[in-house]
Amino acid sequence: MRRRALTIDSGSQRRKYSIEISKYEYVDEKEEMIIDNVRIWVYSPLLLAVEKLRALLQQHPTYPQIPNKMKRSRARDLYDIWVISDFFTIKLEMYLPTVKAVFLAKKVDMRLLGSLSELRALHMASWSDVELSVAAEIQ
Prior knowledge:
Blueprint: E1 2-10, E2 13-21, E3 31-35, E4 38-42, H1 45-57, H2 75-87, H3 96-105, H4 120-124, H5 127-138
Antiparallel strand pairs: 1-2, 3-4
Helix pairs in contact: 1-2, 1-3
């Protein structure tokens, strides 16, 4: 995966956009947006939530594509899934074909969904960071 930052001059204020490019992504449900008169494709809210779920499950000890020493807590993803699902009224269980397609692209076994509770301790390890970062949003 390559990561690039692009600076776009928007008058007196400069903005920096980060673009991630990957060969192995499911993007059939992408959405078009116009930012500063530039047409770009972005993940739909559904794809964002599913990608975050996938990233959580990739931290499972049995997921072989990421070495165990590289696995980390992703508590913010738990919060983000909740916010996205609540705001856009998304029930992930109603979009299993999309979940399967996203998981297949990253070689994540669907059976790991049944193991999410096993990752609770790992992901809750950074929950206090989430609380600090979203405290203003919640109030």
